Amino acid sequence: MHLFATVDQVCEISLSSTSEYGDPYNEIEVDGVFRHSDGRTFKIPAFWRGGRRWAIRFSPPDAGEYAFETQCSNQSDGGLHGVTGTVRANAYEGANPLFQHGRLRVATDKRHFEHADGTPFFWMGDTWWMGLTLRLDWPRGFQMLAADRVAKGFNVVQIIAGPYPDMEAWDARGRNEAGFPFAADFARVNTDYFDMADLKIAYMADAGLMPCIVGMWGYYMPIIGEERITRYWRYLVARYGAYPVTWCICGEGGMPYYLSKTPQEDATAQKTGWSHVMAYVRAIDGHHNLITIHPTQYGREQVDDPALMDFEMLQTGHGDLESVAPTAETVITAVGRTPTMPVINSEVNYEGILGRCWQNVQRLCFYVSALNGAAGYTYGANGIWQMSTRDNPYGPSPHGRCWGNTPWQEAMLLPGGKQAAWGASFMRRFPWWEMERHPEWVEPSWNRENLYTCTAAGVPGKFRVIYAPMAWDPPLVKGLESGVAYQAYYADPCTGHDFPLGEVKPDAEGNWHPPIPPEVHDWLLVLSVQ
Questions:
Q1: Burial 268-289 (b: 16+ CB within 10 A, else e)
Q2: pTM for the full predicted model
Q3: In sequence order, what are the residues at sequence separation of 6 or more whose Cβ sits closer than 8 angstroms to the Cβ of residue 306?
């Protein structure tokens, strides 16, 4: 059999087995080997679609022709082994940056992301942990939330394939229109569930929202077992690896189940098991999508070898103002560790959780992350992460407590989400990937005893950005370079409006006292060379 396809994004090749299997998901493995005319080779796993049906999804990295041949662990299956064909890839001509600039990678400085064509990528994520469940209805609700996030400036969505946190595996809240992610006893996946998930994953990518796919929550490792989870991750890689995605191996990798009677033993087993799974995913993903793990604090502490990760996720607390200083310190520590890798603050102070963490806290956490070296930031809103609805509030976690039941339709409108996403747009005004911390540039400079001290970053002689969390008295700008002509402005992180200040005229010691801002709240003070 010889197949031919033309594609400019994701190509799907359908196969049908000719042999009989009692349990094809567990009994056999299928791959497609694609060879570009220049000699490059890509080995892509196939996924089971149910019954005799299999499929391979391939996204060619460049235009040109790719000859392929399938390989099946049962070489006598003529429908799955030895099938050949050609894929002709056209150059993408659309405006979606995820396809226009190519797949995400780590830049050579190991501190930030860029697309395949070298375009820098500042990660601005939103948290939809349970977005593949029935509570975020398809298509109306899902498309409405996606449109809102794109309009505000988000470009990533952290979303769980399942099973989910804050519940047991067979809790009805973890269903989608076709049931649960797994069949009974986790013996195999529910392919109908993933048919529905396909619609949402593809829609996000087409909208310009990169899916950061979380396999499941970490505490399922001792429940499901490493062998079955490894096969499940092969399925996810095969089904979604062709899309512009990143992989998050699990959520809160080292956290045992809430009611576990053996928490220490579970935590140890989880760290080892998820490390093995991460290494396996790296080995089989022919599209080379970036890999991380979602932590309880530092991602690198959730695995045996941090070098398995491409970037580090952080979780820095949900304690409202009390979490701001730990957020800054955790980011600074993570950015300074080796091996060097991009750092994302992937969970902090969901807006509205426990009746607090409102927009002022959202701005504080964003800027102390971004200006201390993070390569991006993920916002979260209570009500969206668990997709609570008016008719079906999420309710309690297994420990019996409820984090809050705000409907996602209301949480979508919380001002902190818009303000945090505007912060990402603000960062993109500058070559943010060149920025470094410069606490010596400002007084009062940040310290943990006073949340309202300033954070400064930039590039000497080019630009400075100072975040002043409380500008009753404007900060003192220090150490301005002799002979550098800066222009200054205030940027309002609440409204997005700019207020020009004109030429910076320092004193003889190189210090400058900026004027009082238009209102008393937090401000961004920018000095740049025109």
A1: ebbbebbbbbbbbbbebbbbeb
A2: 0.97
A3: 299, 300, 312, 339, 341
Q: For 72-88, how does the pLDDT look when each residue is reduced to its tens digit (9 = 90+)?
A: 999 999 999 999 999 99
Q: Six-digit token pair at 427? A: 């960062």
- Taking the C-alpha atoms of residue 500 and residue 518, their distance in angstroms, rounded to an integer, is 11
Q: Are 117 and 204 in contact (CB under 8 A)?
A: no
Cβ(296)–Cβ(279) below 8 Å: no
Side-chain half-sphere exposure of 401, counting CA atoms within 13 A: 6
Determine the 3-state secondary structure of 201 from DSSP: helix
- DSSP notation for 26-92: HH--EEEEEEETTS-EEEEE-EEEETTEEEEEE--SSSEEEEEEEEESSTT-TTTSS-EEEEEEPPP
What's the mean pLDDT in 437-448? 95
What is the chain's Cα-based Rg? 24
Please, what's the b/e burial string for 131-146 (b: 16 or more CB within 10 A of its CB; e: otherwise)? bbbbbbebeebbeebb
Task: Collect all residues with Cβ–Cβ distance below 8 Å to 9 and sequence separation of at least 6.
Answer: 59, 92, 99
Angstrom distance (rounded) from CA 494 to CA 96 = 28
Q: Which two tokens stand for residue 390?
A: 């008016």
Q: How far apart are CA 80 and CA 72, in angstroms?
A: 6
Q: Verify cis geometry, omega within 30 degrees of 0, for the bond prior to 500.
A: no
Dist CA 259 CA 213 (whole Å): 26
Of the chain, the percentage scoring pLDDT greater than 70 comes to 98
For residue 313, the SS3 value is: strand
**476 and 454 Cβ atoms separated by less than 8 Å:** no
Task: Tell me: pLDDT of 5 over 90.
Answer: no
Respond yes or no on whether the N-terminal peptide bond of residue 474 is cis (omega within 30° of 0).
no
Nearest CA among 162, 226, 166, 222 for reference residue 190: 162
Alpha helices (H) along 384-515: 408-411, 415-427
pLDDT at 7: 52
Amino acid letter at 441?
W
Name which of 182, 185, 217 is nearest 197 in CA terms. 182
pLDDT at 8: 59
Is residue 1 very low, low, confident or very high in pLDDT (cuts 50, 70, 90)? very low
pLDDT, tens digit (0-9, with 9 covering 90-100), for 160-200: 999 999 999 999 999 999 999 999 999 999 999 999 999 99
Interior angle at CA 219, CA 388 and CA 168, nearest 5: 45
Residue 155: name the closest of 427, 519, 455 by CA.
Answer: 427
Model pLDDT for residues 381-401, shown as the tens digit of each residue = 999 999 999 999 999 999 999
- DSSP 8-state code for residue 451: T
At 34, give phi and psi (nearest 5°).
-110, 130
